[in-house]
Amino acid sequence: MRTSIATVCLSGTLEEKLHACAEAGFDGVEIFELDLVVSPHSPERIRDLARHLGLTLDLYQPIRDLEGVDEALFAQNLRRAEAKFRLMNRLGIDLALICSNVATATVNDDAVVADQLRRLGDLAARYGVRLAYEALAWGKYVNDFEHSYRLVQAADHASVGVALDSFHILSRDWPVEPIERLDPEKIFFVQLADAPRMQLDVLSWSRHYRVFPGEGGFDLAGFMAHLLRTGYDGPVSLEIFNDTFRQADPFRTAIDGLRSLIWLQEQARERLASEQRGEGNVRLATLPAVDEPSGFNFAELKGTEPTRLRQMLDQLGFADSGRHRSKPAVELWSQGDARVIINAQRGAEGRLQVAGIGFDVVEPLASCSRALQLHATSVQRTQQLGEEVLQVVSAPDGTEISFARLDDQGRPPWMVEFEHTVPNDGLITGIDHINLAQPWQHFDEAVLFFESVLGLRAQPSLDITAPMGLVRSQVVSSEDRAVRLALNLAPLGRGDHHGRFHEQHIAFACTDVRALARQAVANGLKQLRIPDNYYDDLQSRFDLDEAFLGELRALNLLYDRDEHGDFLHFYTEAIDDVFLEVVERRSGYDGYGAPNAPVRLAAQYRV
Ligand SMILES: O=C(O)c1ccc(O)c(O)c1
Ligand SMILES: [Mg+2]
């Protein structure tokens, strides 16, 4: 499939945008008019730069408000369009996007509009230009792709076809099956955008909240399946108006975009195969098929001064499994299947942070190769002869993601590289979930990364109220919930009184959190203090037994309940930006204690 991207998706100058698209690996780009207008470079220079970078210039856009007007205005519009066709000749672009009229249309008569499209087509043909007519979702008279298609058919001109944009179709809930009945020769261009489901006027929704396919709530795999069944084999282009992307590093955004298109091709292929109603003519990108991870292999924390962390793990009943054979700064602490690697060597600014997560997978090489084909960055780790080769890539936030296969005893192969590997079975049985703080401009990218690379599923995102702002939180998890990651978007600017923002943590699964809390506190563990008001509120919500409530209060335990069962958990004090949590899920409770998250954030803010 030929991949393309509109320059409007990216921040920076037109040259930076072109470099970013080429470096990511797109085949072509759509030039957004304003990017050229504000550029000091001539159209010829932009054409040469694109050629030099190996990018085709697929589309010039947009030309607005041409059709559905009276003759006097149409004459002016033809002159305006002709100037653009001349410019396109200089750029070497032969396809223009014509947006349906949103402003100046006064003639709601299909015969008139079709005639004007035909006359525009005549003019365009003189310049070797073709016109792709796009029904904008808020077009005054034309806002439905089927209507734009009927007009194009009526115009009956070889140089006039339609542009399909998934946003304009899916945001209006237009039926998508009719796409299959379009003549592929008349589909001149295809733009893709996803978006979160919102109750907002469609123009604002489109101009600010579009995201890459897979990052929103639209069924783009379904859209693609309908499109491909027509036989369309032209470029598929990303056109994302997004306030965050406009501020983020264009090189990263371009990679995020290409990843979305590669992943979408896999999904479209699966959809076509499952529906068995034709496959189209396009060769879709393939990826190594991998099962989702079956568990956490380890969590790695790094920081130059891990003494407090060691003490905390000890108080929680973890066993010191000793140092790594060839890396003395690396040590392992374990309890049940919870394995924490402390790396005292490589701390960014020395502060403790979650640096790596290991996943249990069946085929580590296939998982790693899938990640690399989705443009994850490979991480090289030094190792000695005879040591397990870990397959490692970097997640968008820099967390190192590694893949390993458990041995017949259910243990990771690298464990023998540590001094003591005696199993330590206590109340903690494994890692329940890991929270990672995401930089604000990379949140959507992170969700898509974990969905596409690891095959995790995104749950609906939540906003958690905290003294420093609203914290956006979204869980990605495996179907059986053996792997759960909570991604949190830190509010800008304000952390706690020390400027810290606590959103990185490791939550351990426990069979009896009350017993564990009692033991750990007796061992001197410093818990996060939960205010009395919380327990009064809890009582009003759940009508708990007084003795039970008293125990929760005494042990700084938090409580929640869902349709399956209930949930008890507590937090430790933070060490730098990291803290630990212990959770007990009873009878299949499936959440994360979301109603308790504001209580935690406020308590951490005060410390
Ligand atoms: O918001 C707009 O004006 C606009 C312009 C061009 C497009 O292709 C589009 O989908 C929207
Ligand atoms: Mg569009």
From TrEMBL:
Q: Which reaction does it catalyse?
A: 3-dehydroshikimate = 3,4-dihydroxybenzoate + H2O
EC code(s) of this entry:
4.2.1.118
Give the domain of life: Bacteria
Molecular function, one GO term: metal ion binding
Q: Which residues form the VOC domain?
A: 430-573
**Pathway(s) the chain acts in:** Aromatic compound metabolism; 3,4-dihydroxybenzoate biosynthesis
Q: Which UniProt keywords apply?
A: Carbohydrate metabolism, Lyase, Metal-binding
Cofactor names from the entry are:
a divalent metal cation
Which is one Pfam family of this protein?
Answer: Glyoxalase_5
InterPro entries hit by this protein: DSD, Glyas_Bleomycin-R_OHBP_Dase, Glyas_Fos-R_dOase_dom, IolE/XylAMocC-like, VOC_core, Xyl_isomerase-like_sf, Xyl_isomerase-like_TIM-brl
GO terms of biological process kind: 3,4-dihydroxybenzoate biosynthetic process
Q: Which residues participate in Mg(2+) binding?
A: H433, H505, E581
The main enzyme category here is lyase
Question: What role does it play?
Answer: Catalyzes the conversion of 3-dehydroshikimate to protocatechuate (3,4-dihydroxybenzoate), a common intermediate of quinate and shikimate degradation pathways.
What PANTHER family does the database record attribute to this sequence? HYDROXYPYRUVATE ISOMERASE, XYLOSE ISOMERASE-LIKE TIM BARREL DOMAIN-CONTAINING PROTEIN
Family statement drawn from the similarity comment of this UniProt entry: Belongs to the bacterial two-domain DSD family.
Q: What is this protein called?
A: 3-dehydroshikimate dehydratase
Organism of origin is: Ruicaihuangia caeni
